[in-house]
């Protein structure tokens, strides 16, 4: 009689252990899926139209004159070669160039530069305390 009680107690605690294990796995799965869905929806949000339109535009012929050899010759989004009459958009910070229509479509879906993945989301801190984009010798000499 004592053996029957012990065996039912063993199986009862075994079922409790299995239940707790399944509960923990479900909790981990739920947290992981929630995190994935939330971060995916945040990362897939592009920039607002006002921000996209605020980026400077230039004709490729003008860019070519200003930057000489360092200018790329094709759009990295559509892989089409630039023509002198093509209107390009220049991204802030990284200064990468793209066809106007290509980059505007990209930025509506993604808040980053397609080449270097620099974030283009305006932050309140950047407006209050602008950071130098590069450290040249004149900046170092003054500080």
Automatic annotation (TrEMBL):
It comes from the Eukaryota. This is Uncharacterized protein. The lineage of its organism: Eukaryota, Viridiplantae, Streptophyta, Embryophyta, Tracheophyta.
């Amino acid at each position: 009689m004592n053996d029957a009680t012990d065996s039912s107690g063993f199986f009862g605690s075994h079922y409790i252990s299995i239940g707790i294990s399944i509960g923990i796995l479900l909790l981990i799965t739920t947290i992981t899926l929630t995190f994935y869905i939330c971060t995916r929806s945040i990362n897939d949000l592009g920039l607002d139209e006002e921000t996209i339109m605020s980026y400077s535009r230039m004709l490729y012929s003008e860019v070519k004159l200003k930057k000489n050899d360092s200018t790329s010759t094709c759009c990295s989004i559509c892989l089409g070669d630039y023509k002198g009459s093509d209107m390009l958009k220049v991204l802030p910070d990284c200064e990468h160039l793209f066809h106007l229509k290509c980059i505007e479509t990209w930025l509506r879906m993604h808040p980053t530069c397609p080449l270097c993945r620099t974030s283009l989301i305006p932050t309140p801190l950047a407006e209050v305390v602008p950071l130098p984009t590069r450290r040249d010798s004149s900046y170092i000499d003054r500080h």
